[in-house]
Amino acid sequence: MKMLAGTGNGLFAIDEAHQTMAVLAERTVRDLKDSGGRLLAGTDAGLFASEDGGRAWRPSGIDGRVVWQIFTGPHAGEVYAGTQPAGLYRSKDDGRTWEDIDSFAQAPDAERWCVPVKPRQPGRARALVVDRTDPRRIWVGIEVGGVVSTKDGGATWRLDLPGANPDIHMMVAHPAKTSVLFALFRSDDGGATWQYVWRGVTPRYARPLCIDSRPPYGVTVGSSPTAFSSFKDTGGAAAMLYRSDDLGATWRSLGDAAHSPSAANFHGLVPDPTTPGGVLVGTDSGEVWRVSAGAEWTQLASGLPIVWSLLALA
Question: Could you point out which of 23, 100, 136, 294 has its C-alpha 20 to 30 Å from the C-alpha of 45?
């Protein structure tokens, strides 16, 4: 299996022999998606695209913003991008041209969105879901600002998930149930109500999250003690991978003896298309791993910068 790994210092191709090659330099690559064979990379300098399977990359819009997440919509050519400062963009031609959904800036509490570090940073629109049956329905998770949604394609917005801890890093929709959303809070009614399901788990700070498109639609989450946990810490990051096959009712560890906990923190978590129930995960120490549903770990790459995003290629 060939892969792309987006890192803190460029984009790398990984071949079947686990050899790596830089294909886009000097960019932090936060997300990677395939839109109809056109590969898209969300970077700290806008969006980049490849028409040749990832060998060559060119700028493709959204200049001047950090692109945190890319979401391929239900219709051919339809792509959405969430950015920092918190913005939402839509494309109907696989990311060649973009429309700024400027009404998003008028969403409830938008003036409060920020990342509360020193110095304070603008908020990030980093978790996107578009309804597969009705693309007018869009949910956006904000770091830090909860979940906002629209039922009319962005003309109006409402705040779905407020509260004291509205720090949303990832959000996914259930592949077989369009009304079920998952972001460590779970909604069974399209965002009208939410219940907290991240219980009985240590450590608590969760960031990467993915859901398998195959039954039993397992949800995998990477967690660490704090937002800043790192392999550079004394004793390492103390990170864990957890899996739930019942949408958060119960959780089990995916750690093996060497990763219970992991010295490196986890990022770039995606389902493994070649292994039902498996995932691919990157680390802040520059490794890429394949992890099976049975907690078997296989290293696919090492020696990279911090791995923020992954994309498996056919």
Answer: 136
CA distance 139 to 31: 18
Burial of 151: CB neighbours in 10 Å, binned 0-12, 13-18, 19+: middle
Q: What is the mean pLDDT of residues 48-70?
A: 97
Rounded CA separation 286/229 (Å): 15
Q: For 240-294, what is each residue's pLDDT tens digit? A: 999 999 999 999 999 999 999 999 999 999 999 999 999 999 999 999 999 999 9
Measured between alpha carbons, how far is 128 from 126 in angstroms, rounded to an integer?
Answer: 7
Domains in the chain (CATH in brackets) are 3-312 (2.130.10.10)
Phi, psi of 77 (to 5 degrees): 85, -10
Strands 58-59 and 46-50: antiparallel
How many CB atoms lie under 10 A from the CB of residue 246?
12
